[in-house]
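Record 1 of the preview.
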Amino acid sequence: MVYMKVQTLGKRSAAVIAALALAVGGNVVVAHAAAPAYIDCQLFGAGEPDFIDPALTSTLVGANVATMLFDGLTDTDANGNLYGEVASKWATKDGAKTWTFTLKKGLKFSNGEAVLPSSFVNGWKRSMDSKLASEVAYHGDFILGMNAYSTGKGAFPAASVVADDKALTLTVKMENPTADWPAIVSHSVFSPIPTTMIGASDKVEEDGTKLVGNGPFMLDKAITKRAGGEVVIVPNPNFGGKASLLSKVTFKIFSDVNAAYNAFASGQCDNGPIPAGRYTELLTKWGTKGVKTVLGTDYWGFNWEDPTVGGTKNKLLRSAIAKAIDKNQISEVIYQGIRKPASGLLPPGIPGFKAGQGLTSGRDLDGAQADYKKWLALGNKTPSAIRLSYNDGAGWDKVASIIVANLKDVGIPAKLDPFPADGTYFSKMRSGKGQIIRAGWFADYPIADNFLYPLLHTKTIDGDNLERYSSKAFDALVDSARSSTNKSFAQSQYRRAEVQALKVDVVMVPTVNRGVAVVLAASTSTFPITPLGMVVYDQIVKN
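->
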C-alpha cells in the first residue's frame, strides 16, 4: 500500500493512525477505556545482532525497540517527513557547516532526570567511544573530529559538540558542509542518555534498570537473545508526549520464521512474520492491514577479497552471476509481489532515485552466458561450487535455492551456505567468511548517502560494508556528494557512485525492494509503520 497524505504530526499523531486505518480498511479507534497489552512475534534470533541499546543496534528489529525507548532530536513521520522530536527547531548560518538545535522544555527520562543538551553530548560520547566498538558509530563521522574519537585515534571533540543547558541549545560543527544533518541525526546512535548511563558498557540492556531512555516506553524486562526469550516494554510515566494506547508490549523472540508464524496463528501473539512463499495465502486469510511499502532493498554481495568472485579480475564472472539471477522469479515466487524487483540499490522514494542503475531489472540469461564464456576464455576454470551465504531460519534458503538454479542455467555451480540462527551471521560476514553474501538494508534516514556510504565506502569495511569493497572512484564520488550543499549536484554524484558500484565494478546484485508484510489479529485495528520500516508501537490501536 501507499501512505495517505495526512497532517504530519510525527509518530504520536492520532491523524496518522486514523489515516492508516482507513487506508487498509480497518476500524478507526482513537480512545480506550483501558489500554490493552500487545504481543509481537519477532525474529530477534534469526542470525542478526539483537541489541536494543540505541548506541549499538544495527538491525530493524532492534531499532524498533530502541526508538520506543529513546527519543532523538528529530524523527521521520509516517509520510517520510522530518519533524522535531526533542528539538523544537534547528538552523544553520554558515552553509551547513554548523548546526544549532533548540530543545523543548520540560522533557524527562523515565527516571525523572531532565533531558538537556548535555544529555545528548553524554549520549554521543558514549555511542562513539571506540571502547564501546559500536558498528554504527560511523554515523558520527559527519562531525568535526568524531572519526578520530570513534576509531581510538583521538579524544572526544568537545569543541564540535557544545551544549548550553541554560539556553537549551546544542551546537554541532561538521567536518564538511552537511545539508542533510537534521535527518541524519534522527538515527538512534544520536540518542541522549541520563547521567546514570555515562560510561555504561555494552551489557547495559541486560539489566532493565540501567537502560534508561526518554521515549514513550521503558524497558520492563531484560532482553534474552536466544529463542524462547522475550523483551517487555511498558509506558514511560515521565514521557512528555502523548500517552501510549497500549499498556504493555511484549516481544516474543524466535529464531525461525515458521515457529514465529505458528505462535501467531495459535493466538499467542497479535502479529507475526509471514514465511517465504506464503504471502498471498496468509494475507488473504488474515487481511492486508500489515502490508506496507518501505525504503529498503534486499541484495546479494560479492566478497571483494575472495579469489574466485572478488577483485577486478573476476568482474565478468560477477556480471554473469548478476545477469543470471531472476529477480522477477524471486519477487513472485517468494513474496508474491510484495517485494518488487530492484533495478538498483537505492529504493523508489529515496531522493535522487533513478531506475536502471544496476545491470538488470529482471534477468538477462543470454548476457549471463556470454559474460561467463568470456571469463572462461581468459584462462579461468569452472569454479568449485560458489557459496551463497545466508542466516538460517528466516526463509532465505528458498531465495538462495532459486539463485542456485538460475546459475545452473548458465553453467555456474553454486551451493547453499547457511549459517546458524544464533546472532553470529553478520559478524562472520564482516570478517570475510562469506563468498556471495545475503543482506538487506532499511533506510536509517531517507537520503541516498545512507545506502551508499555505510554499505560500500572503504571506511565502513569491518562494519556494514560486508563485501569489503574498496574503490577510490566510488569513495571520491560519495565524498563529494556528502560534502555538497547543492542537492542537484549531490544527487548526481550519488547516482554516478551507484553506477560505479553496480555496473562498473559489479560488487552486489540488488534483488528486490522491500515491502513489510505482517499478519495481524482481528483485534488490531491499526499497525502504523513509517517508510523507514519503524513500527510506531505507542500508537497501535488494539480493540
